[in-house]
Amino acid sequence: MNNDLLHHQQTLYESKNPTRRWLHCTRRDWIIYAIKKYANIKDMICMEIGPGSGVYLPILAKVSKKVTALDIEMSYLNNAKILLKKYNNIEIIAADILYNNIPSATYDLILCSEVIEHIEDPSKAIKEIYRILKPGGILILSTPQKFSFMEMTAKIATIPGIISIVKYIYKESVIDLGHIHLLTQKKLLKIISNIRFEILQMHKSGLYLPIIAEIFGRKGLEIERTLENKIVNNNFLNWQLWTQYYVLKK
Question: What does the alpha-carbon distance between residue 60 and residue 247 come to, in Å, rounded to a whole number?
Answer without folding.
Answer: 15
